[in-house]
Structure formats: structure tokens, C-alpha cells
UniProtKB/TrEMBL annotation:
This is Metallophosphoesterase. InterPro entries: Calcineurin-like_PHP (IPR004843), Metallo-depent_PP-like (IPR029052), Metallophosphoesterase_sf (IPR051158). One of its GO terms (cellular component) is membrane. Residues 506-516 have a biased composition (Pro residues). One of its GO terms (molecular function) is metal ion binding. It holds the Pfam family Metallophos. GO terms for biological process: lipid A biosynthetic process. Residues 260-427 form the Calcineurin-like phosphoesterase domain. Residues 496-516 are annotated as: Disordered. It comes from the Bacteria. Keywords: Hydrolase, Membrane, Metal-binding, Transmembrane, Transmembrane helix.
């Protein structure tokens, strides 16, 4: 049906009014007026996300430097991290991790290869080795400066480029770059404020390096030869250089002859793999004496006794106390071996130059016919052990190391002995008690035994090597050894020093020379 001209004009006017309303915010429909710009908090979070992602991409792409360190070619990189620290990758030998600092960045040092020309120069001119540590220190310093500058460029470029791609506004992109630079500088300040120059004294080894503790020297040389971080790092890298020379036959560990090496094991719980591990550690570390703080068995039954037969062939004297899973029958069976020293009720014995005293656990928990006596029995056993230790000291034969399976009993010996060893709780601890006695709690050298198959994550196999001065009989250092549990093939060794053996402290005196 045809419309009149007047009607057509009215329709056109309504269309024009609608067009003008689209241009006038006041005339827009209510739905369009409700659309608000992004909230400032959301906008800020978006900018932070762009900055972090861009900075990470920049570091990933160009944030590394290749620099020679002595005779080696290395690659240094900064990486985002929640815990900080330094990781030195020595392919194909493994890695060393240092708790050098805390903060949101980690320093990765990849040792790529040993330069044949620079290495040959050292072989041809051995006198240059004396200056190698200074050269390594200078190289590390120059590489760190270059890495800092390149990292600044990397984070600014990455954040700026990503900001430009996201916002398409140069001002926003430059703001992202500036914020990334400020974040990197704040991370650097945090790392500097928490820098720990002694961290190289307590490295964690993994891979093949876990079987070469000589990479950081012996217990005495660590104390007397490392003073500042650059010198420590230089010595570490220098020794790694030596490892490259003999990759196929890693050097055996040569401990300081003035130290007594004690292998502390506990809670084997019928794991047959433990004997091979212990025998390997005895040979690798030249162990003087093995100390087992109990729970070697699971039920202590006569049928289990044959499990103990490998003890006779471990290659070192074996000092043993009863755990709550070991029976008196277990104790009698072990007492038949010539190399085994069974300690109970405070009895003492001198083995490998150390005087040990210990007590068996007062409880035998597999026996369901008797009521468990609980913590009071453990404390009473510890009190009796402490009394025996004081009697030994009064008699002029002081005990160097005390043994009690349960830490509750071990803590009662505080003040009566320098060092007490225990187990039972299946994890490693080192604690100085209020009166000065040092308590060492060992983990499970059997990985909690075959019961570990019930767990989703198998317990690790743990043991420790304790280094004691032959003259003072005091603890100088200890290595914590941690192996993957059932079905796992990982290895980690970390070295620790008592506070009195840290750089700057007076080291234990050297033993007197013995005239043959």
C-alpha cells in the first residue's frame, strides 16, 4: 500500500533522529550506557601479566651469555624462580645446586665443553695452574656483568614488544618495558641482599657428580682453604675441570687422613638392596666404621635372621643397637659376627678410634601380646644411657658417640656426650640440643622397606657420612646421601659443616706426627 508524502517525511525524520542519537551519548540506549571501561585493578593486572610474560620471553630468547671460564666454555642464564639459588650443569657428569641467594631469579651456569687449546696450554705450562683460580674468578665476574646488561636489554625488549602487540599504543608498551626493568632491578637487589657466600660449602650433587665428593675437597680443606665466594666458586670450577680429564674413571674420594669416617645407617626394614648400597658407600668413602641405629628387621623373627648374613662382608666394623622392630633373638644372632659390636644398656666399646656407647630400644612393637609402654619408656631408657655416659666420663673413658634408636631417648643424653645418633622417624635431621650435644637423626636406609610399595611416592633411601677429627673426636662435616626409593634412579649428595667449622672459625688441630 502506497504511503503519502507526509508519512514518508515522518519516517525519514525518525531515521535521522535515530542516527543523531547514535552519535550523542546522552541519547544512546540504556544497554550501551551500561558498558563501562575496564576497572583500574583489572587493567593493572593485565599490565603485570604482559610485563611478566614479556620479560620471561626476553630472557628465554636472548637473556644468556656465552663466556670462557678458565679452560671451559660456559653459558650463563638468568631464569625466573620461586626459590632463587645457582645451578651449575656439568654435562655429562651431572649438576651442582647452591643456595646462593633467595629471590625470584636463578643463575644457571652450563659448562658446555673443555676447550682443547686452553687445556693443552695448562698441560704444557703447569705453572699456570697456580694462577688458574684468579683467572676463573675474573672470568666469572666479567661474565656476570655481561649477563646483567644483556638481561636488562632482554626483559625491556620482551616486555615492550609484547606490550606493543597487545595494547597497540607506544606509551603503554614503553610503560611495560620500564616496569620490567624495575622488576629485574628489584630482583637483583633481593639477590644481593640475601647473597650467601658460604653456600658453595654445602652444595647438592646430582647425577654422576653425586659419586665424586672430592669435587669440593675433603672436610679439613673446605674449612681452611675457602674464604670468599669467588675463591670458593673458582676452586669448584677448577676441580670440575680435573673431572673432565678423567670422565671415564672418576677419581676416588681421598679423605683427609686425620678424619675418621662413620657411615650412619638406620631403619633398613628388611630391604635387601640396602646391603649393596652400604657396601658401595664403604668402598667409595673409605669408611672406618658403620653405625646402625636399629630397625634392621621388620618383625625380628628367627626366620628373618639370614637377612643379616651380608653384614659380615661389608668391609668395615659394624656397631649396632636394637630398634623397636628388632628382637632379642636378632640381637643374639648379630652378636655372633666377629666384625659386629652390639651395644645395649649403656655398654661401651672402642671401634676405629672412637668410643661408642648405646642402648637398645626398650620396646618390641611387633609383639602384640605385650602392651606398648610408649614415650615414658623411651625417656627412661635415655636417662639410663645418660647415667652410663657420665659414669664412663668419671672413670676416665669418656664416650665420643652415643646411640639410641628413638630420638626421645637420644635427647636425654644432652650434656653427657658430644654426639648422639638415632633413627626411627624415617627422615634426616641435625639438631644441637640446649646443653650442646649434637643430635643426628638418620632417615631410612631401606627406604622404609618393602612396605614402601604401598605408597604413591616411595620413601628415599638415606644415609650419612660423618667426618670426625681423629684427635678431638669432634664432628668436622657430614654428607647427606639421598637415593631414589623403589623404582627410582636418582642420587643426591649434600655437604654440611657445623657452625664452628665454617670459614673464619678455628679448625681442629692437626694430629701429631707418628714416628714409625
Amino acid at each position: 500500500m502506497a504511503r503519502s508524502p507526509t508519512a514518508a517525511i515522518r519516517v525519514l525524520r525518525r531515521a535521522l533522529r535515530r542516527a543523531r542519537g547514535a552519535r550523542d551519548p546522552r541519547a544512546r540506549p540504556l544497554a550501551l550506557q551500561l558498558v563501562q571501561p575496564p576497572h583500574p585493578v583489572a587493567r593493572a593486572l593485565g599490565l603485570v601479566a604482559v610485563v611478566l610474560l614479556g620479560a620471561w620471553l626476553g630472557l628465554l630468547i636472548v637473556g644468556s651469555v656465552r663466556t670462557p671460564v678458565g679452560p671451559m666454555d660456559t653459558k650463563m642464564t638468568l631464569r625466573p624462580s620461586l626459590t632463587g639459588g645457582t645451578k651449575i650443569n656439568v654435562s655429562p657428569l651431572g649438576a651442582l645446586e647452591l643456595d646462593s641467594h633467595t629471590g625470584p631469579i636463578r643463575l644457571d651456569v652450563d659448562v658446555d665443553r673443555l676447550d682443547p687449546d686452553r687445556s693443552q696450554a695448562l698441560v704444557d705450562h703447569p705453572e699456570r695452574i697456580s694462577g688458574l683460580q684468579d683467572e676463573v674468578a675474573r672470568d666469572v665476574e666479567h661474565g656476570t656483568v655481561d649477563l646483567a646488561l644483556r638481561s636488562c636489554v632482554a626483559v625491556v625488549s620482551g616486555a615492550t614488544a609484547l606490550g606493543l602487540a597487545v595494547y597497540r599504543r607506544p606509551r603503554r608498551a614503553l610503560a611495560a618495558g620500564g616496569l620490567a626493568l624495575a622488576l629485574l632491578m628489584a630482583s637483583g637487589v633481593s639477590a644481593y641482599a640475601t647473597w650467601n657466600p658460604k653456600s658453595v660449602l654445602e652444595p647438592r650433587f646430582s647425577g654422576l657428580l653425586s659419586s665424586a665428593p672430592s669435587v669440593v675437597g675433603n672436610a679439613r680443606s673446605i674449612v681452611t682453604e675457602f674464604d670468599v665466594y669467588q675463591q670458593e666458586l673458582a676452586r669448584l670450577v677448577t676441580n670440575v675441570t680435573k673431572l673432565y680429564d678423567v670422565t671415564s674413571t672418576l677419581p676416588a674420594y681421598r679423605p683427609d687422613p686425620s678424619t675418621i669416617r662413620v657411615l650412619h645407617v638406620s631403619d633398613i626394614h628388611l630391604n635387601p638392596a640396602s646391603w649393596k648400597i652400604i657396601a658401595s658407600l664403604v668402598k667409595q668413602y673409605r669408611i672406618s666404621v658403620i653405625v646402625d641405629t636399629g630397625d634392621t628387621m621388620d618383625h625380628g623373627s628367627t626366620a628373618e635372621n639370614a637377612f643379616l648374613d651380608p653384614v659380615a662382608d661389608l668391609g668395615a666394623p659394624y656397631v649396632w643397637i636394637r630398634g623397636n622392630h628388632d628382637s632379642k633373638e636378632t640381637q643374639r644372632y648379630l652378636g655372633r659376627f666377629k666384625n659386629v659390636h652390639v651395644l645395649d644398656e649403656g655398654r661401651a666399646a672402642t671401634v676405629a678410634g672412637l668410643r661408642f656407647a648405646g642402648t637398645g630400644d626398650p620396646q618390641y612393637t611387633p609383639d602384640r601380646s605385650t602392651k606398648a609402654l610408649g614415650d615414658p619408656a623411651e625417656r627412661l631408657a635415655g636417662i639410663r644411657l645418660a647415667s652410663a655416659l657420665r659414669d664412663q666420663r668419671a672413670a676416665g673413658t669418656p664416650v665420643d658417640v652415643a646411640l639410641a634408636h628413638n630420638p626421645l631417648a637420644a635427647r636425654q643424653t644432652d650434656g653427657a656426650v658430644p654426639l648422639v645418633l638415632s633413627g626411627h622417624v624415617h627422615h634426616q635431621e641435625m639438631e644441637v640440643l640446649p646443653l650442646g650435644t649434637r643430635l643426628r637423626i638418620e632417615g631410612s636406609t631401606g627406604g622404609s622397606g618393602l612396605r614402601a610399595v604401598d605408597d604413591k611416592e616411595p620413601d628415599p633411601v638415606e644415609a650419612s657420612v660423618l667426618y670426625l677429627d681423629r684427635t678431638t673426636k669432634r664432628l668436622q662435616a657430614w654428607d647427606e646421601i639421598r637415593l631414589g626409593g623403589l623404582g627410582l634412579t636418582t642420587a643426591e649428595v649434600s655437604r654440611h659443616l657445623p657452625a664452628e667449622n665454617q670459614p673464619g672459625a678455628t679448625p681442629s688441630p692437626s694430629p701429631p706426627e707418628v714416628t714409625p
